[in-house]
Amino acid sequence: MASFPVINLEKLNGEERPVIMEQIKDACENWGFLEVLNHGIPHEFLDTVERLTKEHYKKCMEQRFKELVASKALEGLQAEVTDMDWESTFFLRHLPESNMADIPDLADEYRKVMKEFALKLEKLAEELLDLLCENLGLEKGYLKKALYGAKGPTFGTKVSNYPPCPTPDKIKGLRAHTDAGGIILLFQDSQVGGLQLLKDGEWIDVPPMRHSIVINLGDQIEVISNGKYKSVEHRVIAQTDGARMSIASFYNPGSDAVIYPAPALVEKEADEKKKQAYPKFVFEDYMKLYVGLKFEAKAPRFEAMKAMETTAPIATV
């Protein structure tokens, strides 16, 4: 089997651009995931983010997680647990409005660094969306506009730690799912693995790699690309040794964004069935459905949206 796509963006704007663009295209079409190096976010800055995130977990989250494990009797599991995950998390919202000032326990330095990190990731997300546009044959800026609601995109970060787990065969770090939104940028632990994606019926490890950003595509990119790119099921396997850090940032549509396949891609499609493959809907309606069905197959979600297909006027993009 081909190895997981790790792509060096260093020479993207030089002579090697066609080769790198082809690598990105292949990763989007066949994996739904890629890991990028030399993405423009300084290594020293990423080291600071990692250090402060791990310090914050130790100081503010670790004890809470131990108490949760005790209260839910998760320590010596005999049977498989399928309704919760072995993870400690908190959420930061950046766009359309930030909630950073409202999160308790964040040290001033950490708050400042995470605000800066969000700006860098937002820029990278929009650069990557334009690379996807180029490969799909869409005009520059199409995907960014498609995800834009009245107040722009929704952008937020899930900060997770996956502590050592004594019974990883009985509980997942995070159960298998596809991501609901647009494009996801993950800064993960460089030592402790556990993230896996499903490809051709097999679970494949996403390799931990220092200073890389892992990219994956959400359900909305699948719809807009008319299925040319697919969102892919992934999960986190809990580990017996070592705590794994995961900082996943989600560049999603605005809640009122109307999502539908790009007309230019539908027109190119010769197969009539594929022309009608995906519904048109308001992102907020999709999220209401997704919240209850996150850990189930995505096809019924698309079918349900088709059944209630919106008649919202479509803005020309």
Q: Detail the poorly predicted runs.
A: none
Count of DSSP strands: 13
What is the H/E string? EHEHEHHEEEEEEHEEEHHEHH
What structural class results from the helix and strand content?
Answer: alpha+beta
**Mean pLDDT value:** 94
What do you see in this structure?
By secondary structure, this protein is of the alpha+beta class. The protein is 36% helix and 21% strand. It has helices at residues 17-30, 43-71, 108-136, 142-147, 219-224, 263-268, 272-275, 283-293, 299-307; strands at 6-8, 33-37, 88-95, 154-162, 174-177, 183-188, 195-199, 202-205, 213-217, 234-236, 244-252, 258-259, 281-282. Helix 1 links the parallel strand 1 (6-8) and strand 2. Helix 1 crosses helix 3 and helix 2 (43-71) crosses helix 3 (108-136). The chain is globular and about 55 Å long. The two termini are 39 Å apart. The model has no long low-confidence stretch (mean pLDDT 94).
Features:
single chain, 13 strands, seven-stranded mixed β-sheet, 317 residues, 36% helix, alpha+beta
Sequence-ordered SSE layout with sheet pairings:
Blueprint: E1 6-8, H1 17-30, E2 33-37, H2 43-71, E3 88-95, H3 108-136, H4 142-147, E4 154-162, E5 174-177, E6 183-188, E7 195-199, E8 202-205, E9 213-217, H5 219-224, E10 234-236, E11 244-252, E12 258-259, H6 263-268, H7 272-275, E13 281-282, H8 283-293, H9 299-307
Parallel strand pairs: 1-2
Antiparallel strand pairs: 2-9, 3-4, 4-11, 5-10, 6-9, 6-11, 7-8, 7-10, 12-13
Helix pairs in contact: 1-3, 2-3
